[in-house]
Amino acid sequence: METLKILSIFGTRPEAIKMAPLVRTLKETPGVESRLCVTAQHREMLDQVLNLFNLVPQEDLNIMKDRQTLSGITCRALEGLEEIILKDKPHLVLVHGDTTTTFAASLAAYYQQVKVGHVEAGLRTFQKYSPFPEEMNRKLAGVLADFHFAPTRGAAQNLLGEGVDPQSIFVTGNTVIDALQTTVGEDHLFEEEKLNHLDYENQRVILVEAHRRENLGRPLEEICQALADLVDNFPDTCLVFPVHKNPAVRETVSRFLGDKDRVYLLEPLATGDFHNLMARSYLILTDSGGIQEEAPSLGKPVLVLREHTERPEAVERGTVRLVGRDRERVYRGGAQLLQDGEDYLSMARAVNPYGDGKASPRIRDILLHSFGLSSQLPPPFNP
Ligand code: UD1
Ligand code: UDP
Questions:
Q1: How far apart are CA 99 and CA 39, in angstroms?
Q2: Based on CB atoms within 10 Å of each CB, which residue in 98, 165, 214, 348 is the most buried?
Q3: Which ligand is nearest to the Cα of residue 51, counting in written order?
C-alpha cells in the first residue's frame, strides 16, 4: 500500500475536541491521506471546535434538526454516510466515543466492508440506560470495530471481558489530554468578555455543565435547585453555567437559575475559554463525560451529576465523586467541599489517569504499523 486513506467521521462537540489532535496528526503524516467528514449532529457547537482547531471538513452532512430524535439522527447520518464512504473508498474509517454519529458511522463503514477504528473504546458502566444512549452506542460501535483504541487499561479490560480479540486492542491514553495541552495558559484572555471581569481572587467559581438526555426533566430541575441552594448559602461563591444548546436544557436552567444574583448563564463557551475557566474554578459540577477526564489533570475537584460513570479512574484516584441528581445529595456534595478545606484539598490534586498528551501520535503509529507502513509498534500508554 502506498497511501493509507483514512476517513475520520464525527458530529458533536466532544468528538470534535477529542478527534482534532488526531486529525491534525494524521494530516501531517507522510503516507497518509486524511479526510474529514462531519455529520453535524451538532451545528454551532461543532463549528466552534472546528474553528478553534482550524479543521475544514471535506464533507458536511449538516443533519442537525431542532429537538432531533435518536432515530432521526441515526437515519440521516447512515444515509448520508453511505454515499460518502462509497465515493471516498477509504481503507479505514475512524470514529470516536459514544454518540449516535459514532454508532451510525461504524455501521455505515461496516455495510461497505471498510475497516473501523474506534477511538476511546471500551468505556462501560454496564448499565444499559445510563448513560443513555451512549452506553449502547459505544458498545455497538465496539462490536463493529477492527481496531479498539482504549484510553486506559481498565477500558481495555472491559473489551477483553467481552471477548474482543486482544490483538485488536491498544491502550493509548485519551486524546482529550492532547487537546487540553494546547489550550490552557495563565495569560488566557477570554473570548467571553464576562469571564475577564470575574473576581477570581475573592469569589469562588462553581462551574457547571449538564446536558445528558437521562437528566432532562425532573433530574435537571433538582440539580438546578441544589445549585440555587449552594449560591444562596455560600455568599463568597458565584456560579458559571455555559448552557448547552439543547432547548430542553435551556428551558429548565433558565426557569430555575435565570434571575439569580451571582449566577451567570452563558452560551456554550469556546473550548479554550472552557478549559481556562476550569483551571480558574474552585469546583466543577457536571454530567459531561469529557469534563470528568479534563478536570483531574487540572487538579480541580469534580462532582458528577450522575448515578454511574464509565470513567472510574479519577473516582478511584479521589478527584471525582458521584453525587447523583437529587437536590439534597447534590447540595450536600457541594456544601461539603465549600466548607471543609481539608476535604477539598484532598480532592484538588492533579492526576493524569486518562492520558499523557501523546495519544494521537500513538494511534497514528499503531495504524502505520497495522497497515504495513512501519515496522514499529509504540509502547502502550502507562499512567
Ligand atoms: C449529544 C450526544 C451526547 C453528547 C452530547 C455532547 C447522542 C445521542 N448524544 O447529545 O452523547 O454527550 O451531544 O454535547 O449522540 N443543538 C443546537 N445546536 C448545537 C447542538 C445542539 O441547537 O450546536 C440542539 C438541537 O435542538 C438538537 C438538540 O440540541 O436537536 C440535541 O442535540 P443532540 O445531538 O441530539 O443531543 P445532545 O444532548 O447534544
Ligand atoms: N466544553 C466546551 N464548552 C462548554 C462546555 C464544555 O468546549 O461550554 C468542552 C469540555 O471542555 C469538554 C467537552 O466540551 O472537552 C465535553 O463535551 P460535552 O460535555 O458536550 O459532551 P460529553 O463529554 O458529555 O460527551
A1: 11
A2: 98
A3: 2
